[in-house]
């Protein structure tokens, strides 16, 4: 005979209908609780919204696509650039004589945008086109041509399935202010109310300086003042845009300075020794920045040769700035008011392209040493430069000596940066994957994505909320199981002999 310990054969209480019903209801309730908590939050964070901005600059047009989680519309800090596309060909202002082509030039990048933005979001995605100094100049020179370009661009953009919000010229003040918003937004300085960074933007046809200075309240030269209330903080921003002081127009001005008498050739210290190209007078003077200086009697062409001398180049560059009059307490140049420089600055666009090529983005190198390095670069013969950089675009390569000299002169002589304040400048292309420039700030403003007041923050982030609901649900379940203890199946204490 074998003795075995067996459970008493009792009626299993789990099989009682009441217990089964209560258990099922309990499980369903807990599953429903967790599901609701997850569904409340999770699917929303999966949805993104999009915005598209076309930056129609003087030298080229670029398209930017921005993306942000749908539920964060009014909380910001989360808008990111997901894609950019450079339009082939020149800026839209160059199509004054064939406006239709300005619209057509945008097609390729726009088609890319159609593929990049999910189809179901197309109709609600705002599309903006902002034109800067190139179109400002064309508008001054020939407003009917400028209108025709806009008409063509308008028609072309309406063909796409996005919510087109119109094409317009940004004022210099807007360009400066939105560039400042972009860099401070991306650096998360606005939401946190931290000290802001100034913004230095160097384009092809204009240049902007924008910063907050504690001794500027907008009363002196009010036209340079922009007031913002962002996330509950008030900002009194100083901003100025210098039309014609972008690097392409500034180069024109230095060439105009050297061709005042209408010579057949010039020996330009801003170009490398050995550089020589025949250029047309009509093209040089075809801009409102220099058109009034066209020599009376000039041949149709001039030979532009280089001699590579940084110091002489700096003297010519200085001559395009006017330092003689200032009706304010202090000025930068051309009689424009500028308060005391304050805080760190982000310098982008051509500031970055040029200083990056020249390997001079490290501003902890003393300013005098930076000048020496540039002087050495300018003195390098053109043949050697061409051999050293066979893949760099010819126009850029020929101009880097001028461009570097212009940047240092603009910063030090123009804006009054000194050896002490120069290290406060950071040459940047992008911040956290988004390009520095006016486009993001422009879109944030037009879509009201930066609230005036600080948004109420939820007591918990949604991940924390889900975790707490899940933990509570599990605890409830365990408690429920334990409360069922009296009904658990019991083993008989007496062994049974079979
Ligand atoms: N890699 C590069 N090296 C040198 N210069 C460059 C490079 N890429 C662009 N540039 C030049 O830098 C300048 C600024 O370019 P950006 O695109 O910021 O200006 P833009 O928007 O065309 O001008 P604006 O803002 O004045 O209308 C232009 O003159 C452009 O030709």
Automatic annotation (TrEMBL):
Reactions catalysed, as given in the entry: UTP + H2O = UDP + phosphate + H(+); ATP + H2O = ADP + phosphate + H(+); CTP + H2O = CDP + phosphate + H(+); a ribonucleoside 5'-triphosphate + 2 H2O = a ribonucleoside 5'-phosphate + 2 phosphate + 2 H(+)
GO CC terms: caveola
The protein's enzyme class: hydrolase
Active site: 175
UniProt-listed Gene3D superfamilies: 3.30.420.40, Exopolyphosphatase. Domain 2
Family matches, as Pfam families: GDA1_CD39
Taxonomy, superkingdom: Eukaryota
Name listed for the protein in its UniProt record: Ectonucleoside triphosphate diphosphohydrolase 1
